[in-house]
């Protein structure tokens, strides 16, 4: 049996070779430890330490993920910092300048963390990134508490 010019038994293997593979995980700092923020405006978070960047769709210089293919993608963020009565930990996953989902934590002491995830249909060239809320701050060190990850689930 044939599917076009490809034997049916070979068709799944042939088509799996043409599918784009996209996945990344990054954390805030490449080295050291640092408290970042607060800022008085929305500020893009640039995750410098890249653990995985299959497909090179995440840019550690800008903090932007740019969709290389039309498809359904899943993204997650994890944020945290030392508690402070006046400064929360807050960040939003943004698609093409539009806020999608946010993570937020405010506690007066101790270490607090939050996270969120979202599944999005993206077109080629759509941009996803993470943005601080005004007055927010985060802390990171070699334990890599603050992360941004995403991967292509399937193409459309």
Summarize the entry for a quick read.
With 156 residues, this protein is mainly β.
Topology:
Layout: E1 2-3, E2 6-7, H1 11-18, E3 23-27, E4 34-36, E5 43-44, E6 49-54, E7 58-59, E8 64-66, E9 71-82, E10 89-95, E11 98-105, E12 111-122, E13 127-132, E14 138-140, E15 147-155
Antiparallel strand pairs: 1-2, 3-6, 3-15, 4-14, 5-13, 7-8, 8-13, 9-12, 9-15, 10-11, 10-13
Account of the 3D structure:
- With 156 residues, the chain is mainly beta.
- It has one domain (20-155): Jelly Rolls, CATH 2.60.120.40.
- It has one helix at residues 11-18; strands spanning 2-3, 6-7, 23-27, 34-36, 43-44, 49-54, 58-59, 64-66, 71-82, 89-95, 98-105, 111-122, 127-132, 138-140, 147-155.
- Strands 5, 7, 8, 10, 11 and 13 form a six-stranded antiparallel β-sheet that branches. A five-stranded antiparallel β-sheet has the order 6-3-15-9-12, with no helix packed on it.
- Mean pLDDT is 88; it is low at 13-17.
Which key terms come to mind for this protein?
mainly beta, 6-stranded antiparallel beta sheet, 5-stranded antiparallel beta sheet, 1 helix, 15 strands, globular
